[in-house]
């Protein structure tokens, strides 16, 4: 099982949550560099990594956060309130952001100290990073899509009409795509807060990421597909099991997918 993938583009490495207590660090050829195992067999739920892979943050089902160095040594550990579903490293801003199913988003410093806590309207399921505009985009289980600044202050939320399970932000940070419920993808203009596109997949959608400005890479229960606004499905590949996570490089030229098996 794959529950989280994060790219360290400068180091050309990939951090992967393996669905159980193991987190793997791989090179771009898929070769294992090391494996970190969370104590007591607690499941790794999410992972984030900085560009040179010198800092790797792991969030667990039990609400723990581990900060690891590039040699998998534990730098610090923190206990938060519930499952860690969203996780972002903002190294240049001395900020680690964690979204939990207790309905809170937590801001921590790189050395693990509390900076702020913001209570959302419902459980937090995912967080999108917006480094250019110094914002965060939080998807919640009650259908709200909430923008936060780097001090945790919220702006007016977008009501998507359904449970927001995953969030993807386009590189120019003008548009965001979200998974609503089990099988619907919506796209929003973040400046006007208007919905500009909706696609019904007809099956369970697990994850999504932008490929450039016009296309989305989508993981589903039957495989993967590339969607384009106003065109629909451009490409589809059936796989042996569910594609749980997809991630693309900043320029949208590389993509990685993690299957349930």
Q: What attributes characterize this protein structure?
A:
single chain; 261 residues; mainly beta; 4-stranded antiparallel beta sheet; 58% strand
Q: Percent range for helical residues?
A: under 10%
User: Overall pLDDT, averaged?
Assistant: 96
* Helix/strand class: mainly beta
Query: If helices are DSSP runs of H or I spanning 4 or more residues, what is the number of helices?
Result: 0
Mass-distribution shape: globular
Cα-to-Cα separation, first versus last residue: 5 Å
- Overall radius of gyration: 17 Å
Residue stretches low in confidence (pLDDT < 50, at least 5 long) are none
Task: Summarize the helix and strand pattern as letters.
Answer: EEEEEEEEEEEEEEEEEEEEEEEEEE
Largest sheet: 4 strands, antiparallel
Number of strands: 26
How large a portion of the residues is in β-strands, by DSSP E?
over 45%
Report strand order across the widest sheet: 1-2-3-4
Folded structure, characterized:
This protein is mainly beta and 261 residues long. Helix content is 0%, strand content 58%. The protein contains no helices and 26 strands. It has a four-stranded antiparallel beta sheet, with no helix packed on it. A four-stranded antiparallel beta sheet has the order 5-6-7-8, with no helix packed on it. Strand 15 and strand 16 form a beta hairpin. The mean pLDDT is 96.
């Amino acid at each position: 099982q794959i529950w989280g993938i994060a790219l360290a583009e400068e180091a050309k490495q990939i951090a992967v949550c393996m669905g159980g207590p193991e987190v793997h660090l791989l090179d771009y050829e898929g070769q294992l560099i090391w494996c970190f195992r969370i104590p007591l067999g607690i499941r790794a739920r999410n992972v984030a990594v900085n560009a040179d892979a010198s800092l790797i943050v792991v969030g667990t089902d039990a609400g723990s956060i581990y900060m690891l160095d590039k040699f998998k040594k534990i730098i610090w550990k923190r206990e938060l309130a519930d499952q860690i579903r969203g996780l972002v490293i903002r190294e240049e801003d001395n900020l680690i952001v964690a979204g939990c199913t207790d309905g809170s988003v937590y801001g921590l410093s790189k050395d693990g100290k509390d900076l702020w806590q913001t209570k959302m309207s419902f459980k937090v399921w995912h967080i999108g990073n917006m480094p250019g505009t110094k914002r965060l985009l939080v998807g919640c289980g009650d259908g709200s899509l909430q923008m936060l600044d780097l001090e945790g202050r919220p702006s007016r939320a977008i009501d998507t009409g359904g449970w927001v399970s995953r969030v993807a932000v386009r590189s120019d940070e003008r548009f965001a795509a979200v998974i609503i419920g089990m099988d619907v993808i919506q796209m929003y203009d973040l400046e006007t807060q208007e919905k500009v596109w909706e696609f019904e997949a007809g099956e369970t959608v697990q994850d999504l990421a932008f490929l450039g400005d016009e296309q989305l890479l989508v993981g589903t229960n039957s495989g993967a597909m590339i969607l384009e606004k106003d065109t629909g499905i451009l490409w589809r590949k059936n796989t042996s099991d569910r594609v749980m996570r997809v991630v693309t490089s900043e320029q949208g030229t590389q993509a990685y997918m993690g299957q349930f098996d």
